[in-house]
């Protein structure tokens, strides 16, 4: 399948998806990496690795206009499935509806726990023994669609949000490619 990735930052999950897509038995290829942030390091990495990139800045214009450009870029690239990978903006209902059932997101918590930001600090503050990440289908509400895969990691004594984030992120890099592969085999 032809996959388009949306990101806003570093792009380590995008890199994990690209690496997996270049394995011989992969069910997908990453045909476009698009961002709301021209300076996102993930965009530069994608370009350097031969992947088409697209930026549409939302600054100073209506969300519908900005999202229409992203949507057009995805369609022009023949994208069939969209993978959000650290895309830090809520997509509008009309965008989500146009791609319904074909957008995935990875979120750094064991959903339904800790939707939104600061997931690791919240897991530590709650005294959780286990943390993790979830891959879910995107619906109109933030971090709310059906979960299709999860990975757990321990919360260790002395963990800070940063040390826990690093452990969860390593798990994310295994989880997202596997979850996408399984999603595409359905
Ligand atoms: C990841 O923790 C992901 O779960 C969350 O945003 C972070 C993105 O990191 N949605 P990266 O840009 O993939 O490195």
TrEMBL record:
N(1)-(5-phospho-beta-D-ribosyl)glycinamide binds at residues 11-13. Keywords: Purine biosynthesis, Transferase. It catalyses: N(1)-(5-phospho-beta-D-ribosyl)glycinamide + (6R)-10-formyltetrahydrofolate = N(2)-formyl-N(1)-(5-phospho-beta-D-ribosyl)glycinamide + (6S)-5,6,7,8-tetrahydrofolate + H(+). InterPro entries: Formyl_transf_N (IPR002376), Formyl_transf_N_sf (IPR036477), GART (IPR004607), GART_AS (IPR001555). GO terms for biological process: 'de novo' IMP biosynthetic process. The record marks 143 as: Raises pKa of active site His. Pathway: Purine metabolism; IMP biosynthesis via de novo pathway; N(2)-formyl-N(1)-(5-phospho-D-ribosyl)glycinamide from N(1)-(5-phospho-D-ribosyl)glycinamide (10-formyl THF route): step 1/1. One of its GO terms (cellular component) is cytosol. One of its GO terms (molecular function) is phosphoribosylglycinamide formyltransferase activity. The active site is at residue 107. Gene3D superfamilies: Formyl transferase, N-terminal domain (3.40.50.170). Residues 2-180 form the Formyl transferase N-terminal domain. Catalyzes the transfer of a formyl group from 10-formyltetrahydrofolate to 5-phospho-ribosyl-glycinamide (GAR), producing 5-phospho-ribosyl-N-formylglycinamide (FGAR) and tetrahydrofolate. NCBIfam families: PurN. PANTHER family: PHOSPHORIBOSYLGLYCINAMIDE FORMYLTRANSFERASE (PTHR43369). Belongs to the GART family. This is Phosphoribosylglycinamide formyltransferase. The lineage of its organism: Bacteria, Pseudomonadati, Pseudomonadota, Alphaproteobacteria, Sphingomonadales. The gene is purN.
């Amino acid at each position: 399948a032809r996959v388009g990735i949306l990101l806003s930052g570093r792009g380590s999950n995008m890199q994990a998806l690209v690496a997996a897509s270049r394995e011989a038995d992969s069910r997908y290829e990453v045909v476009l990496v698009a961002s709301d942030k021209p300076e996102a390091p993930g965009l530069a990495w994608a370009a350097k690795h031969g992947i088409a990139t697209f930026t549409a800045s939302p600054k100073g214009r209506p969300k519908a206009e900005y999202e229409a450009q992203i949507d057009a870029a995805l369609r022009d690239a023949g994208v069939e499935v969209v993978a959000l990978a650290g895309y830090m903006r809520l997509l509008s209902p009309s965008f989500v509806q146009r791609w319904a059932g074909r957008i995935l997101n990875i979120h750094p918590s064991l959903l339904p726990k800790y939707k939104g930001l600061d997931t690791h600090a919240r897991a530590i503050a709650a005294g959780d023994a286990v943390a993790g990440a979830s891959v879910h289908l995107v619906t109109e509400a933030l971090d709310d669609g059906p979960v299709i895969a999860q990975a757990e990691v321990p919360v260790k004594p002395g963990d800070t949000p940063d040390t826990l984030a690093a452990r969860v992120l390593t798990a994310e890099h295994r989880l997202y490619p596997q979850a996408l592969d399984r999603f595409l085999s359905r």
